[in-house]
Amino acid sequence: MELKLILTGLGGQGVLFLTRLLSKTAVSLGHTVMVSETHGMSQRGGSVISHLKVSGSKAPLIRRGTADILIALEPNEAVRSLTFLRQGGAAFINSDNGLPPELDAHLKRLNLQVQCLPASQMAVELGTAAVTNTIMAGFAHPFPIESLRHALTEIVPHGRELNLQALTAGYAANQRSVFSEQ
Amino acid sequence: MSVENLLGNEAIGLGLVEQGCRVVTAYPGTPSSEILAGVIKHKKRLGWDVYTEWSSNEKVAFEVALAASWSGLRAAVAMKQVGLNVAADPLFSAAYTGVKGAFLVIAADDPGPHSSQTEQDSRMMALTAKVPVFDPSSPAEAREMVALALDLSERFGAPVLLRPTTRLCHAVQSLDLPDVAGSNGETPKVKFRKDPGRWTATPKFRNKLHHELNQKLRQIEAEFDQSPLNFVINAGSSDKVGVIASGVAYHTAVQSLSELGVRIPVLKVGTPYPLPQHKVADFAASVERVVVIEEPDACIELQIPERGKVYGRLDGTVPNAGELSPEVVAHALAGVLANAGFDISPSPHDTALQDLINELPLPVRRPRLCPGCSHRSTFFALKQEFGPRAIYPGDIGCYTLGMNLRAVDTFVDMGASVTMADGFYQAGRITGDTRPIIATIGDSTFLHSGIPPLINAVHTGAKFVLLILDNHTTAMTGFQPTAANDTLADGGEAPRQVSIPDIARACGVGFVESADPYDQASFRTLMRQAYDYTQEADGGVAVLVADRPCVLYDRAPIQEHPVPVIVTEECDGCRFCVEAFECPALVLYPERNIVDIDYKICVDCGQCIDACYKGFIIPKMPVGSVQ
Predict the structure, then answer these.
(1) Which residue of A19, A64, A84 is the best one to mutate when testing the B interface, meaning the one whose CB has the most B CBs within 10 A?
(2) Looking at chain B, which residue has its C-alpha nearest residue A108?
(3) Residue B401: closest C-alpha in chain A
């Protein structure tokens, strides 16, 4: 089945790496992928967003209101991208304080499943803020964790152990993800 | 064979190598930059002999590759859409002369625009130049079209344009990667053969060549009419509305129709110029209304002679600026379909939530120079020395972001900082405007098109300071080497490097100095000396090279001399450093009314010490030292 993901954050946070990790995992499971990445000037600290379609249309962009999963490395970028989700879609957000409370009624009305994790803080505790993205990959785990682990070992030449720890830590924080069986 | 996830640009690069291109040249520019990188990666993977270069500019790149084609080799040149403006002269000429070996011009368009000064349509440029166009819709199709375009070019002896757009260039798609097969090791049995009536055609012969070109285009159009690249899906499913679409917008249109719950015929045009007129006319005859979905401009739509039933950019059905996002395409299609009586699914985009989000005070993210960027030190010193009054013509690169520090007042195109400074001086001489003029240009941009403007300014006696921001690489587009570097495109050693200060001297500039902008006090002194030189009776242009490697490209200088800093408790939150220095690692905490360092991104450059004139940003004392 088709799975549509929006991955977002700020330039320098590793949205591209997260995108490549999930794409590689999808392909290792026999799916085709179509991804749209942000390059160029926006990478200098601006908003960065990837659209990832697994076994879906070849159109590079996902229409607002149709994405299944949102993974955000920064809470303001999460809010900016929230309406990409379809009704009943799931958001996994790196945030210490959740989302602005004025959104609550809408999240409930649209049956959006929002889960937050203080991933930046966890990453620093693991040794470096650079693995925030990997923690969030484990937290959302849109694919079986073993497949993610395998793809991660293939694409990380350095710091493999730390990245695997980060993936595991994110996964441990959310083993009941509704999408974990896909 | 293996399946790999390939970036669209890499898929194009792979296609060029697979199809036996022996010379591939380029000048970097978003969204095209990774095409040559893809060529280099796959020629190395296969161990094949393909000459690659990052040329000085797009015209240079075009002509180097063109000569290879005239020598009988398969050749290609890649650039972004505005680069094709720079290479327009040889593009138009080569359409007439034709080519020998296959010659593929790749110009990547940037609907939006995301990283460009215009949304121009390279297909229209090719139409004006009379160059056939292939318009791929996905990385996989781009790779296939490389083969078909090269074949067409070779058979007709015509240059051919491949036109991807940003969303294709930066799309990643799973593709089959073939195992190493064959080799390109043998010496090709071709060489340049003189043909004065063609390669040195005078106007009389040019007229003949023009007729010949028109003849080729007629034959190519007939071939495109039969080409499987132009095909109909859902044929006969409706006689009310049909869609003609090309490029990435084709897939967006198909997705939109599915989301709207509508099944109607779609003509996918893979070759928008020359337009396969019979196929288009037959399609248009089969429906009452035709919606054209293409970007960034109305290339196909304009070529349809009978426009009575055509809806698109020209009548406002499709917005005539901006990218064709899924929302825009769905909206445009929904309008026409509703008028034609179709029952369409409502938009899934929740406007109530969107309206609320639009009201939230989300931080505005603008691109900023990186922590430790030497351009910031240069711009800060510049503003401190010359203030808000001076005129600051800027140029194209990371350092265009000097506008955030109000040290860039204009940018037009590559190299225009120098010519605009020249022109501002001449205009000021007439109007009595004596404000200082200090232009900034990067190393790669200077070598691209800053040199003829500099010669012009020297010769005409213009008086301004030109700061050449030499960070030793083409940073914005991914660190491609310039002619001033010791490496070549594929990592090989450059036999010679050019010296930017020597070029300035050779242009006749009477004041040429070079200094590290990290030493801000000395740099300010030099800037003042440069300006004073321009004001001397026999003074003219002064060139000052700000010499410091890009902090992302070469971290060694900072690692050798790190200067960690702290903000003292006296900080009164006056915001000066945050606004005038604008380092992402300087964070203002309004609730505590202080600035502090974000050590997660600070690179210990120590440059912000100069950014607090009150002395509240200081070097961190070494551990154990006396407080």
Answers:
(1) A64
(2) B353
(3) A41
Beta bridge partners, B130, equal none
DSSP string of A122-138, one letter each residue = HHHHHT-GGGHHHHHHH
SS (HEC) of B88-134: HHHHHHHHHHCCCCCEEEEEEECCCCCCCCCCCCHHHHHHHHCCCEE
Give the tens place of pLDDT for each residue, B82-133. Answer: 999 999 999 999 999 999 999 999 999 999 998 899 999 999 999 999 999 9
Candidates 3.30.1330.10, 3.30.1360.40, 3.40.50.450, 3.40.50.970; correct CATH number of B2-225? 3.40.50.970
Mean pLDDT across B167-185? 82
Q: Quote the CA–CA distance of B508 and B155 in Å, as a whole number.
A: 49
Half-sphere exposure of residue A180: CA atoms within 13 angstroms, side-chain side:
12
Distance of alpha carbon B298 from alpha carbon B290, whole angstroms: 14
Of A10, A36, A59, the CB nearest to B255: A59
Which two three-digit tokens encode residue B257? 């129709």
Q: ipTM, 2 decimals?
A: 0.92
Judged on CB neighbours under 10 Å (0-12, 13-18, 19+), B126 is: buried
Structure-block tokens of residue A34: 């179509």
Report CB contact under 8 Å: B252, A61.
yes
| Partner B contacted by A58 (CB < 8 A) | yes
CATH code, residues A3-176:
3.40.920.10
